[in-house]
Amino acid sequence: SEGFVSRPEGDDVVREMNSGVENSLLDCPGRYSVRVALFTGAGTFDQKAIEQGESVELESRLVEAAESAHRLTEALRRRGFEAWEFHDRESSMVCVGSFQQLTVPAADGRQVIHPGIAKVAEKLGADPEKLAQGEIMPRSIDGVLLEIQPKPVDVPRMPANRRR
């Protein structure tokens, strides 16, 4: 689901869903952030029901997804993380950090993952020692589960003059 970046910039529905959001990913100054949680409105849907126009359940799930994302963003901010939330038609996500580049040159000239990105993944991803033992337990903050492997995402851009 890394498709949100290619969506048209002038998507008024997505813009509307993110307007008035205090820590919107649209306000993130960096080119990249690290997705630590994804809440989808989809999942266990009956495709026929959707085709027959029963979108009420989908909408309530999207509202639920947005509320979870907002709760997690607030909880992470209280813990000192630079957290952002973003909502689109299918899901809501929470990201942490603001980075201009994904990699930095190491002393030997190789490109290595940006240390800030690595730090977010280490602090908020699954416990690496438990993972090594085959125990896949995502971390949880305020009862909200995080992704097992946080990953960098492009920060979506919308024309600034039409942001709010």
Fold and architecture overview:
The protein has 164 residues and is of the alpha+beta class. The chain has helices at 12-18, 47-51, 56-78, 115-124, 128-132; strands spanning 32-40, 83-87, 91-99, 103-105, 111-113, 140-141, 144-145, 151-154. The strands form three sheets. A four-stranded antiparallel β-sheet has the order 2-3-1-8. Strands 4-5 form a two-stranded antiparallel sheet. The chain has a two-stranded antiparallel sheet with strand order 6-7. Strand 4 and strand 5 form a beta hairpin. The radius of gyration is 17 Å and the shape is globular. The model is unreliable at 1-10 (pLDDT under 50).
Secondary-structure blueprint of this entry?
Layout: H1 12-18, E1 32-40, H2 47-51, H3 56-78, E2 83-87, E3 91-99, E4 103-105, E5 111-113, H4 115-124, H5 128-132, E6 140-141, E7 144-145, E8 151-154
Antiparallel strand pairs: 1-3, 1-8, 2-3, 4-5, 6-7
Q: Give the overall pLDDT as a whole number.
A: 84
Strand content: 15-25%
* Overall 3D form: globular
The helix fraction, in percent, is 25-40%
Low-confidence stretches: 1-10
H/E series, N to C? HEHHEEEEHHEEE
Rg of Cα set: 17 Å
Distance between the termini: 26 Å
Report the structural category.
Answer: alpha+beta
Number of helices: 5
Q: Could you give the count of β-strands?
A: 8
Question: Sheet bearing the most strands, described?
Answer: 4 strands, antiparallel
Widest β-sheet, arrangement of strands: 2-3-1-8
